[in-house]
């Protein structure tokens, strides 16, 4: 398929022809806002689809309803008009080309061969999921203008698209399979991001856990079947309550060739290197997970006082430090005087507001805190700036700025580049210093210096 730029005169002709129906319903006073919007939307969607240079109409659509081939054109159909020039004149509706004998003889053959393209074989797969119903618009397959900016609260105009949003939710529910969000290339390493068609809220529903784990397991097996060497579990796909940080999948299939990485080691390394030099004490708040556990141990070993608010978490750490001289650096405290807070998911707004003015809040969580305390300074979730030669970084990763990538996602890339043939999930933890040095050597840099 070939892309061709239209002459300016042709654009004027298009505009004039497309405006005739709108002028007609306006002059005859038979129009409406719905009719106007519907017509413009249809014309725009069909026109862009015909010139997208990619065949995306599935064969099953014509199998279910054969007359559709006379009513709707495809990208390959219209591409022949640009390459052969004297054929396939019809815009949107091929019926007239069939009637007047201007249909290109290779139309069906080109359509068939375009659908038979080989899937790209990824080396590393990052498995994420949808966050909110509106998050679909912030992906590449949504709006490019939104995808290129960090995801914050839903835009007001997206609420006007609620019929489309509901349809997208229904489609993802029926389709029930992971889909490719992004493809990147880094030093000949082919990296793909796949999304599980589930929303953040569903991960907290106990009755949804089995279905989610089945989808993740299917994605792992698919990645292995395609030859991927590493698969990283992003966002809640590595939840402790959901699958024990990915350990469940190794138990289900202990002979997996693809290596599962939860990225905890790099997340720990990023947070450790975000804490200002000279810090003498930190407080942990929010849900205490695998990253928090190893962070606390590392900080105690570095001689920094660690304040833990919950008795259970404190006892678990104390047991680990019992035979070392670092146990005195661990304290059980509910005070809010510390100037550096390391926070996880589940931090309530009430507790966040108790932080004193000037407190530095550093998340170790997958999701950012609420940022309700205006007197505090907030860092991003564990992430790093990507090298300039990492290709196709055209969209933002959730709430992170452009060309900033989460530590969990970067970890998989590093495992692929270095050829580390090990799993990092469940209780397994990769060497924190080793992966931090590898990230710097490959051109990833800290977001804050």
UniProtKB/TrEMBL annotation:
One of its GO terms (cellular component) is membrane. Belongs to the sterol desaturase family. This is Protein ECERIFERUM 1-like. It is a multi-pass membrane protein. GO terms for molecular function: iron ion binding; oxidoreductase activity. Pfam families: CER1-like_C, FA_hydroxylase. The keyword Transmembrane helix applies. Keywords: Membrane, Transmembrane, Transmembrane helix. Residues 282-446 form the Very-long-chain aldehyde decarbonylase CER1-like C-terminal domain. Its main location: membrane. The chain crosses the membrane at residues 12-40, 156-176. Residues 9-102 form the Fatty acid hydroxylase domain. It is found in: Membrane. It comes from Ambrosia artemisiifolia. GO terms for biological process: lipid biosynthetic process.
């Amino acid at each position: 398929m070939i892309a061709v730029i239209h002459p300016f005169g042709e654009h004027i002709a298009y505009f004039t022809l497309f405006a005739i129906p709108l002028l007609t319903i306006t002059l005859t006073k038979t129009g409406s806002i719905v009719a106007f919007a519907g017509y413009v939307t249809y014309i725009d969607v069909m026109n862009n689809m015909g010139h997208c240079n990619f065949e995306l109409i599935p064969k099953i659509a014509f199998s279910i309803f054969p007359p559709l081939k006379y009513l709707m054109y495809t990208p390959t159909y219209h591409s022949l008009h640009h390459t052969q020039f004297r054929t396939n004149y019809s815009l949107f509706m091929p019926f007239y080309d069939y009637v007047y004998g201007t249909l290109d003889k290779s139309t069906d053959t080109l359509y068939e061969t375009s659908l038979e393209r080989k899937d790209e074989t990824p080396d590393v797969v990052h498995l994420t999921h949808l966050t909110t119903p509106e998050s679909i618009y912030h992906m590449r397959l949504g709006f490019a203008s939104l995808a290129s900016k960090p995801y914050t609260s839903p835009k007001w105009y997206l609420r006007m698209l609620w019929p489309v949003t509901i349809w997208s939710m229904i489609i993802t529910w029926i389709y029930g399979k992971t889909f490719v969000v992004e493809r990147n290339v880094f030093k000949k390493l082919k990296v793909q991001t796949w999304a599980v068609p589930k929303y953040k809220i569903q991960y907290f529903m106990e009755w949804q856990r089995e279905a989610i784990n089945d989808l993740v397991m299917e994605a792992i097996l698919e990645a292995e079947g395609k030859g991927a060497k590493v698969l990283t579990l992003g966002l809640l796909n590595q939840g402790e309550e959901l699958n024990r940080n990915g350990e469940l999948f190794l138990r289900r299939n202990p002979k997996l060739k693809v290596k599962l990485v939860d990225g905890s080691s790099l997340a720990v390394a990023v947070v450790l290197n975000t804490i200002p030099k000279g810090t003498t004490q930190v407080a942990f708040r929010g849900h205490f997970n695998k990253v928090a556990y190893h962070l606390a141990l590392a900080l105690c070993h570095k001689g920094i006082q660690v304040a833990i608010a919950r008795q259970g978490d404190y006892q678990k750490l104390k047991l680990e430090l019992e035979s070392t001289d670092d146990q005195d650096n661990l304290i059980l405290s509910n005070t809010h005087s510390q100037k550096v807070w390391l926070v996880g998911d589940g931090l309530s707004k009430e507790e966040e507001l108790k932080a004193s003015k000037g407190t530095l809040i550093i998340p170790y969580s997958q999701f950012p805190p609420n940022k309700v305390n205006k007197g505090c300074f907030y860092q991003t979730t564990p992430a790093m700036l990507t090298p300039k030669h990492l290709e196709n970084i055209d969209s933002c990763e959730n709430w992170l700025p452009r060309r900033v990538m989460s530590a969990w996602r970067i970890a998989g890339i590093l495992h692929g580049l270095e050829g580390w043939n090990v799993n990092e999930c469940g209780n397994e933890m990769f060497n924190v210093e080793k992966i931090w040095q590898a990230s710097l050597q490959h051109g990833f840099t800290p977001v804050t210096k």
